[in-house]
Amino acid sequence: MVKKAFTRLMVALTLLLGTVYVGWRWAFSVNWGAWWIAVPLVLAETYDLLDAFLIGLTVWRMKIRGDAPPPPDGATVDVFITTYNEPVEMVEATARAARAISYPHETWILDDGERAEMRAMAAEVGLGYVTRSDDWVDRPRHAKAGNLNNALLITEGEFILVLDADQIPDPSILDRTLGWFRDDQVALVQTPQWFSNVTGSDPLGSQAPLFYGPIQQGKDGWNAAYFCGSNAVLRREALMQLGVVGYVREVHVAVRDALAAAERILTRALRTSQEQGRHAMVAVATVRTAARSARQALDAGSHVGEVTYEFQSAVDAASRSLVNHDVAMMRADLASFNLPMELSSEAGLLVIDDRALDLLSDREWSPLSALESVRQLVRAVDVDRVDEAQPMMPMATVSVTEDMATCMRLHTLGWKSVYHHQVLAHGLAPEDLGTMLQQRLRWAQGTLQVLLKENPLVQRGLSVGQRLMYFATMWSYLAGFAAVVFMAAPVTYLCFGVKPVHSYGLTFIALFLPYVVANQLLFFVVGYGVKTWRGHQYSLALFPLWIRACVTAGANVYLGRPLGFVVTPKTRQEHSGFPWRLVWPQVVATVVLVVACAIGAARLWLHAETSTVGTAVNIAWVGYDLLVISVIYRAALYRAPEPTTEAAN
Amino acid sequence: MAEDTRTTVLQPTGRLNMVAAPALKTLIEESVAEGRDRIVVDFTDVVFIDSSGLGALIAGLKATRQAGGDLRIAQVPEQVMTVLRLTNLDRVLRAHRTVADASHDW
Known about the structure:
Number of strands of chain A: 10
Number of strands of chain B: 6
Largest sheet of chain B: 4 strands, parallel
Shape of chain A: globular
Oligomer: heterodimer
Distance between the termini of chain A: 36 Å
Structural class of chain B: alpha/beta
Distance between the termini of chain B: 8 Å
Shape of chain B: globular
Strand order of the largest sheet of chain B: 1-3-5-6
Largest interface: A-B, 33 and 25 residues
């Protein structure tokens, strides 16, 4: 294929030129005297080169699939429409379109908002209506992942089409995608997300033609096509396997953690149990011994099921001995005084059968559970995950973006994913900057959460290609730091004459320019026919957001801090003026860059600076920075079309 | 009824379990020692009892009976009633509806 060959040629050329340029930068042109700006700059350039390598690797294997084969025989499908707070009319439009999907299926509205109007609408349209079961009360809800997990346990279709509330499906969506599941190892078919309420210039950068195109096709080539949360079909069996494997892992971790803390807890409990007498102490000591041997068994590789069973049996025995002791004391007490005649008529009055003894010594009623720390420990060393609504969580809950984490786990288990490059659903994009920023922040935070919690580079079960594909996405979210350096470097040169690079002379231009041109050409070839510039602008212009995502995700994973959100009004903003609060870092950057240009020109004119080429290069650089940042102002001033044009049909 | 210096009402609260039982037992023994050997345990605010709690009640029953008094229980909640029935102790300790019912024939 011509495009593929041309793409590979451009990739090779870009990476070659890039490596030469960055190699020259490290070896010959870093101005170590001004290391504080020189080193960040060369690091930022290296970051960019690695990014180019990862993108090059991605598109190298671009997989252009044609039509899918016909659906597997007799495949059964559930269509899930997830909603939390979207208006009923929006969900109804999606629901009616979902009902009209031509392949036989059942449609369900998964209403996490539990709204009466939604229930009524579902009944009227004739669709299933699902809300959380009682098990979720007072337990972590896990947002959309929890909503899907809840519904997975009460439906039974072999395949599941997931749709966000605003994603109007094409009637042929299942006919066109199910065929990929003829391959038994395929767990996921993702189709693009396309937005119908976006103007041609798309100031908010909602369409992602590079991602839902060459990037996904490239990832597909490495069997790493991503699940993006909506417009995707999933194989139930794969999700259930994920749930089972995840359950075993979570239980193992929980039991190990509980047993690790057991020694300390039980030693303290032993001290407090002195007040309850010798028998209580013996019982607690028994539990402590059981916890010790359980931990040893677990470390020695015993099955968590056996370990917990034996531990629970030992605890039961300790409880039983306490109950027996209490009962013996009662018998002795009762025997030592005369009871009224009618009561003492039966010989051996206090007849307590085994069932009663069992009940008195079970977990809820055992005297041992009077010691709260012991009670909690005993609950934790078990396999029923009492802290979660359901033991099985097929959709990953480690991240606010459940889709990526789930997909990575599917890949680690050896499942395949497919990217079907055909728009089969039309959704609604955010219509103002605030909402857009919030969405982007959430995606970035979620991705970084996964990176920090389950580093794809070291996940067993993933191929090298898959590891790099996941890593590429996470790597791209570090762009905010590089963007700051790319703005700071020309500013320090223009204002103070500080040179991070030894020469801005002709060698620099001769090495830098071909690399940049090749890079741009690569994107032109890869993204031929689609607009890639907007996405490129945002990868730099949203630098405050990317940095914030990195900082908050790090604080969340390592310090347990909440992620926090961009504060944004719920309702549509009506001509509320320029949103300074959302874009002030970009405004500051713009002012600094413009002032730096003026100072640089003045310095040249006053002969404080002698290199015309150096000043020109840096002013051109600033001009590029400004061009990139300018998108944020267009976005800030953007007003979505009036709601009448909003309805997608 | 003349001024009753022998009767006292105890009102434990919360969970009458292994941790709380020794205190109740001590309280009853002290009461008997002071001559108040007709004791009503009011269960209104008790939500739970285990075998140690039962043990304390029976020990209290023994202490009062040996002093010539009695220990009675009133306002017994469901879980406590279940435990009493399970152990057949409901035939030793009759659950009275109210504190007044429990002590009316003293």
